[in-house]
């Protein structure tokens, strides 16, 4: 009874000499089931991730309201307008202010909490971990709406608590004051997402063998020395990944801003995703026409900026790790000598 | 001699006891510091649940207090019926279930192919998926909206399900890839000797073995789907009957800005199920997130 299965079905470890003798065409035929298996995922990704990248770039060359009129080719005019639009640069700036204020606080606080919760003496650690993590799993848009009540200047609990403690005389209009609104959303963002980097840091900390700390204690190292000479160097490779994931995730903020301030007041908290949404779709609630082509140009411009930053971070990370590998190699050689 | 040993403490034992005592003391101090911080951390949820039992008047009067004067359930009824939360709840649940099934199926097959086999083009496929990680959602939303309209899927929940499932899902693929690549190859060899083909090996042997990863992906995708806002907002702009809980709540606030207790009740209905699900399944969820960083 012979069943038509690919010759290398038993592998991970296909015999290499066998593979080298076969032509590319034969190898593709051998693996036909594998390609079939990848198809559903590839089709979905092609439709909803790859195609939109290209289509966005294509739309960006047209003047197009999306629904009624036919697209009209206008070359790079959208880009010229984007670059000259103060509201675009305002949103662009706000996105990066949002990232640069929230990411360092988020990562530092999360690291402190993770180190405290990683303490084996702390038997309640799993309960605390869950409490800090719960905001992560809740629905962002709804959290945003609830937060507009909690931050409200009209008897919202935060203002009441601040006044009871004597910290402020008058309620703060967190979401209505243009100087404060962006940072109020930053505060909620930190609260909402802190649990994620906390879990990342915990995972990183748990890769450090306990014996290292024990050995350091025998040598009389105090808490700070253990932190700077064991913990920090050993979690550094993770830190790069964690920074990258958190930073890119923060640039994607939409739900919190849209539900808490809608980018207001007077665009003070408008970030890029809100700007793109407003120019492409927000017209549904106002008298202006949607501008699909223009919004696409803004999206492409912003998308490229994010990717350049991600690539720079990635390159820096590889460089940092290579340097570290270099040091490790140098140390081994020294020991060999 | 024996009596002496039981009363006197050797210096080593003394240090050990001191260390143990220091440990206990540290535990108590940390617990005392962390408890109020953690309670403040979840205060917004406690406030939301408590407000959902209060009247609109009482929310203004009661300040930071969490205990309602008397419990009223009328808010829930108003939210469920008038604010259409029942319809939005059903939509959200159907979208979440649909996208979970689609994502588990597609990512497990992709992870199996990538984790278990080497074949021409493998590096290209992995490269494409990694490259999509850093893509901002705002970049892709406009063509997705057009695509769903052109496919005439904008009149059903299917459009939202497909769009939510098409986000490349790199983390899930990596989790399946890592898991499948670690399984011993004797499993497949034995199955092939027994006459199983490629499909049977996957569906009857490999997939059932990957239950821990499936559980992780199910809960992570479920929460991601429940949490999504931009996609359902854009795809249901002209179709209020297809709104999800997030979008429905957002519209509800626009219309009934003064009905705080109604909104608190709607928010409670929308958020509590997903928190409960997380509490039951948190082991898988947290391990999945941690695993994603390690790999």
TrEMBL record, chain A:
InterPro entries: ABC_transporter_permease, MetI-like, MetI-like_sf. GO terms for cellular component: plasma membrane. The keyword Isomerase does not apply. It is a multi-pass membrane protein. Pfam families: BPD_transp_1. Residues 92-313 form the ABC transmembrane type-1 domain. The chain crosses the membrane at residues 33-54, 96-118, 130-154, 234-257, 292-315. The keyword NAD does not apply. It is found in: Cell membrane. Its main location: membrane. Keywords: Cell membrane, Membrane, Transmembrane, Transmembrane helix, Transport. GO terms for biological process: transmembrane transport. PROSITE patterns: ABC_TM1. Belongs to the binding-protein-dependent transport system permease family. This is Sugar ABC transporter permease. It comes from Phototrophicus methaneseepsis.
């Amino acid at each position: 009874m012979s069943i038509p299965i690919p010759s290398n079905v038993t592998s991970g470890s296909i015999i290499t000499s066998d593979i080298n003798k076969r032509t590319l065409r034969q190898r593709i035929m051998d693996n036909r089931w594998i390609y079939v298996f990848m198809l559903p995922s590839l089709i979905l990704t092609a439709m909803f991730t790859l195609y939109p990248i290209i289509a966005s770039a294509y739309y960006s060359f047209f003047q197009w309201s999306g629904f009624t009129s036919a697209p009209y080719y206008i070359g790079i005019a959208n880009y010229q307008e984007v670059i000259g639009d103060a509201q675009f640069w305002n949103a662009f700036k706000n996105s990066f202010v949002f990232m640069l204020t929230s990411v360092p606080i988020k990562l530092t606080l999360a690291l402190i909490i993770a180190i405290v919760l990683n303490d084996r003496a702390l038997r309640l650690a799993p309960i605390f971990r869950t409490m800090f993590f719960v905001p992560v799993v809740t629905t962002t848009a709804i959290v945003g709406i609830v937060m507009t009540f909690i931050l409200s200047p009209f008897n919202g609990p935060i203002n009441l608590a601040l006044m009871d403690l004597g910290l402020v005389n008058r309620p703060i209009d967190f979401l209505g004051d243009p100087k404060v609104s962006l940072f109020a959303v930053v505060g909620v963002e930190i609260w909402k997402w802190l649990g994620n980097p906390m879990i990342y840091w915990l995972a990183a900390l748990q890769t450090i063998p306990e014996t290292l700390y024990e050995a350091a204690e025998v040598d009389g190292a105090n808490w700070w020395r253990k932190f700077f000479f064991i913990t920090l160097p050993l979690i550094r490779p993770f830190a790069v990944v964690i920074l990258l994931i958190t930073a890119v995730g923060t640039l994607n903020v939409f739900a919190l801003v849209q539900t808490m301030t809608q980018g207001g007041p007077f665009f003070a908290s408008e970030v890029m995703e809100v700007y793109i949404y407003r120019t492409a779709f927000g017209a549904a609630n106002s008298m202006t026409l949607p501008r699909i082509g223009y919004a696409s140009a803004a999206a492409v411009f912003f998308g490229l900026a994010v990717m350049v930053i991600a690539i720079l971070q990635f390159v820096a990370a590889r460089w940092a790790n290579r340097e570290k590998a270099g040091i490790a190699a140098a140390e081994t050689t020294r020991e060999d000598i | 001699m024996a009596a002496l040993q039981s009363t006197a403490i050797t210096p080593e034992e003394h240090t050990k006891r001191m260390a143990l005592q220091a440990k206990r003391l540290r535990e108590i101090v940390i617990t005392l510091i962390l408890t109020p911080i953690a309670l403040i951390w979840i205060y917004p949820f406690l406030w939301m649940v408590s407000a959902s039992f209060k009247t609109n008047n009482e929310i203004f009067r009661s300040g930071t207090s969490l205990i309602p004067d008397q419990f009223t359930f009328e808010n829930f009824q108003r939210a469920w019926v008038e604010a259409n939360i029942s319809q939005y709840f059903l939509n959200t649940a159907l979208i979440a279930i649909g996208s979970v099934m689609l994502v588990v199926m597609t990512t497990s097959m992709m992870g199996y192919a990538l984790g278990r086999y080497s074949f021409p083009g493998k590096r290209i496929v992995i490269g494409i998926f990694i490259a999509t990680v850093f893509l901002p959602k705002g970049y892709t939303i406009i063509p997705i909206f057009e695509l769903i309209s052109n496919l005439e899927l904008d009149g059903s929940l299917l459009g939202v399900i497909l769009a939510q499932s098409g986000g490349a899902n790199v983390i899930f693929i990596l989790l399946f890839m890592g898991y499948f690549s670690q399984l011993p190859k004797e499993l497949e060899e034995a199955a092939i000797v027994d006459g199983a083909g490629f499909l049977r090996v996957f569906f009857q042997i490999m997939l059932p073995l990957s239950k821990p990863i499936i559980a992780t992906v199910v809960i992570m995708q479920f929460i991601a789907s429940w949490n999504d806002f931009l996609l359902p907002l854009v795809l249901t702009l002209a179709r209020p009957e297809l709104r999800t809980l997030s979008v429905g709540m957002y519209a509800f606030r626009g219309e009934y800005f003064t009905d705080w207790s109604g909104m608190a009740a709607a928010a409670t209905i929308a958020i509590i199920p997903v928190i409960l699900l997380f509490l039951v399944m948190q082991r898988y969820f947290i391990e999945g997130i941690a695993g994603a960083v390690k790999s």
